[in-house]
């Protein structure tokens, strides 16, 4: 690691920890303040926090790598994600912000489900909390692995040291500052990612005389890279765009909607968030596309397409700037890890400890349990990450589909259909999660292809969950009148 890169990274880590300490002193000292920042996030912090926690290392490594390998056909997933994020802001954000406050000031998704459907059996809380805790522990482990590999490949440190540095810094600011620290650091990290994904493709493009020259170089490499449809079937396009459905059920993203200070701030957050997302996704695609031309033009050696951003950072920039750009990758990784840690901690604290072990726990006790949960989940994630080849990590890659199918239809119907019943909600949640798992692991092949390779598992999961929810709701007694009134009140307040 060069001195300039080390200075940039040291400054970045110091800034993240400093924000955590600031949030610790600023946030209200109760469980709502720790888990939701007291519902006082500004539109800009809400938008960039949601975006940064969403994208993770995928935006700086995965998407550029996909563009490098498959060309413009990889844009379909980006189109689906943009549409999904926009609809999430438009449909879910205003009603969820209002409803979670009306429904007994619910501060976690399982808490909201239980209060929305008056579930005295606590079945919804148990099922949804289990899904969140298990999947997010594994999801967090995947992010820690990415940090370990980044430190190993780019900075010359051991993989294990990279794991502890990545997780350690995140745990420090999350442990002390809670949701406010996570959201403020996400805001800063989102800004870093935004600048990096404008700067890198612009400088890389500057190595060519014109767009025409760059396109000719790409065409000489592989003409198929210049088309949107080469090698892509209709089912493939549907599968790629269906990634957007996942937004409706991602706890670490929609919790930001619960924390914004007012429903009136949501349109501003939507404009900021969607502008940020479109610029960063286009920038990521541009990194991969210009990478094809640059590597071919210079005969450079690139063994892993997903490292094209790192290659540009270390090839085209001064070490000080290179360190800033590598910090952008860490920012993407850490922003997601911190969100996942906090959501897991929230469920362990509110949906397990308080709900089943100590219903009369004081705020001081809950804060202590919350911070302890952050540390516990982080340590388990690090332990899992020590096995780089762990098959668990292949399951983590499907968590987006699992959350989207299990929670997505339930979120939408709970907000838009007053006839949704508790039994219907349970049926939808179980059907969505089960369908995704069946689609992934059932020993069924069609023309030699697995179900998952034919169609992204979120598509059948989302559809069947919605059907199950509607049919069971219609076959069971309508919700109590006070729940109907609560729905109408939330609808009116969100308008």
From TrEMBL:
By its UniProt entry, which Pfam families does this protein fall under? Answer: SSF
Q: Which PROSITE patterns does this UniProt record tie to the protein?
A: NA_SOLUT_SYMP_1, NA_SOLUT_SYMP_3
Recorded superkingdom: Bacteria
Principal cellular location given in the protein's record: membrane
A GO CC term assigned to this protein in UniProt:
plasma membrane
Q: Name one GO molecular function term.
A: L-proline transmembrane transporter activity
Compartment(s) of residence: Cell inner membrane; Cell membrane
**What catalytic activity is recorded?**
L-proline(in) + Na(+)(in) = L-proline(out) + Na(+)(out)
Q: What keyword terms does UniProt attach to this protein?
A: Amino-acid transport, Cell inner membrane, Cell membrane, Ion transport, Membrane, Sodium, Sodium transport, Symport, Transmembrane, Transmembrane helix, Transport
User: One biological-process term from Gene Ontology?
Assistant: proline transport
What is its membrane topology? Multi-pass membrane protein
What Gene3D superfamilies does this protein's entry cite?
Sodium/glucose cotransporter
Where does the chain cross the membrane?
6-24, 75-92, 123-141, 161-180, 187-205, 225-248, 274-296, 316-343, 364-386, 392-416, 423-442, 454-474
Q: What family is it from?
A: Belongs to the sodium:solute symporter (SSF) (TC 2.A.21) family.
Q: What does this protein do?
A: Catalyzes the sodium-dependent uptake of extracellular L-proline.
Q: What is this protein called?
A: Sodium/proline symporter
């Amino acid at each position: 690691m060069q001195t300039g890169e080390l200075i940039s990274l040291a400054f970045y880590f110091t800034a993240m920890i400093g924000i955590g300490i600031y949030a610790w002193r600023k946030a209200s000292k109760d469980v709502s303040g720790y888990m939701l920042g007291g519902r006082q996030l500004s539109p800009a912090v809400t938008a960039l926090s949601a975006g940064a926690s969403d994208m993770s290392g995928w935006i700086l490594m995965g998407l550029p790598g996909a563009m490098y390998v498959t060309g413009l056909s990889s844009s379909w997933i980006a189109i689906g994600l943009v549409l999904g994020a926009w609809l999430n802001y438009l449909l879910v954000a205003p009603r969820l912000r209002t409803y979670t406050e009306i429904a007994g000031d619910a501060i976690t998704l399982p808490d909201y489900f239980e209060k929305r459907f008056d579930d005295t059996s606590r079945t919804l809380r148990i099922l949804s909390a289990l899904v969140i805790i298990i999947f997010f522990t594994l999801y967090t482990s995947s992010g820690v692995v990415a940090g370990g590999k980044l430190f190993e490949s780019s900075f010359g440190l051991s993989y294990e040291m990279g794991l502890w540095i990545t997780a350690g810094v995140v745990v420090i600011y999350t442990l002390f500052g809670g949701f406010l620290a996570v959201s403020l650091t996400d805001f800063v990290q989102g800004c870093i990612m935004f600048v990096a994904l404008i700067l890198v493709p612009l400088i890389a493009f500057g190595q060519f005389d014109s767009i025409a020259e760059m396109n000719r170089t790409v065409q000489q490499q592989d003409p198929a890279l210049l088309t949107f449809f080469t090698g892509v079937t209709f089912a493939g396009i549907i599968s790629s765009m269906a990634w957007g459905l996942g937004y409706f059920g991602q706890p670490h993203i929609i919790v930001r909607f619960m924390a914004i200070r007012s429903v009136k701030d949501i349109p501003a957050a939507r404009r900021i968030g969607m502008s940020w997302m479109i610029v960063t996704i286009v920038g990521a695609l541009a990194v991969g596309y210009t990478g094809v031309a640059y590597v071919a033009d210079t005969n450079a050696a690139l063994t892993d397409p997903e490292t094209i951003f790192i290659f540009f950072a270390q090839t085209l920039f001064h070490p000080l700037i290179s360190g800033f750009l590598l910090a952008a990758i860490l920012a993407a990784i850490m922003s997601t890890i911190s969100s996942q840690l906090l959501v897991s901690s929230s469920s362990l604290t509110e949906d397990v400890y308080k709900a089943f072990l100590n219903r009369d726990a004081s705020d001081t006790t809950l804060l202590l349990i919350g911070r302890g949960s952050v540390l516990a989940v982080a340590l388990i994630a690090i332990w899992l990450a020590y096995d780089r080849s762990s098959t668990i990590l292949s399951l983590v890659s499907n968590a987006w589909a699992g959350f989207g199918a299990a929670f997505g239809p339930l979120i939408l119907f709970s907000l838009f259909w007053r006839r949704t019943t508790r039994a219907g909600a349970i049926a939808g949640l179980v059907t969505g999660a089960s369908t995704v798992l069946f689609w992934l692991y059932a020993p069924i092949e069609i023309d030699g292809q697995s179900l998952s390779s034919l169609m992204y598992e979120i598509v059948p999961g989302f559809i069947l969950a919605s059907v199950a929810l509607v049919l069971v709701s219609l076959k069971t007694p309508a919700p109590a009148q006070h729940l109907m009134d609560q729905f109408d009140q939330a609808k009116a307040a969100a308008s």
